[in-house]
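QA checklist item 7 of 12: single-chain prediction sanity check.
[x] sequence parsed
[x] length recorded as 262
[x] structure emitted
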Amino acid sequence: MDTKEYLINYYENYDEDGRLTSKHGRVEYITTMKYLEKYLRPDMRILEIGAATGRYSHSLAQKGYQVDAVELVEHNIEIFKRNTKVGEKVSVTQGDATNLFGFQSNTYDIVLLLGPMYHLFTEDLKLKALSEAIRVTKKNGVVFVAYCMGDASVLSYGFIRGEIHNIIEKCMLNTETFDTFSHPWDIFELYRKEDIDKLRSHFDVTQLHFVATDGYTNHMRETVDKMDDKTYEIYLKYHFSICERQDMVGFSHHTLDIFRKD
């Protein structure tokens, strides 16, 4: 089974459309949108690569932006199309983040790469995906790239859920450095900040933000989901105050690298 087949099997059996709807899931969504709004301007063109079921694409289209989306998994595309509302200026095509052959260079003001880096397992493919996202971005345009973080998974899945011995037996963890190792059948590639910095360093870009999009939220998801609205508002305010603190970002399950094309 190749990487694409593992990915298709996973998303055909996973509720991606509902992932960001719980209180704990909304933290990642709200944070990403908050940073997007820092750079959105009228009449911008937006491309979302790896759009899944279109949560971000539809939200931006409903704000009046012209959004093009690319998604690999047909199951997700079907849901994306069903979620499209009348009046949205949004399109979706099937495609691969590492080869956007149908998209012209220097076309989009904002490019979102919010899922593909989760599922690429070689440096060559990772660099191709970043290169393609940057290629289709206009000069001075802004690129948003999401990553899954290794240490958060070691803590939550390894220790809290009691899978640490299983992870070690599968050779997914170096017990000296605690670096993580993933394969296509593991579905998710995991990173540390230094890995992300190294990938970005290959390109002529300027980093604007590095954001812990869900921070400590997924380690305390049951607590967050039980919060009343007033407490949740305070929690979000706290989260926003620490989400760019470099001493905190490694605890986040998801991070967002935001940079400008020079």
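[x] summary fact logged: The first strand starts at residue 45 and ends at 49.
[ ] second reviewer sign-off
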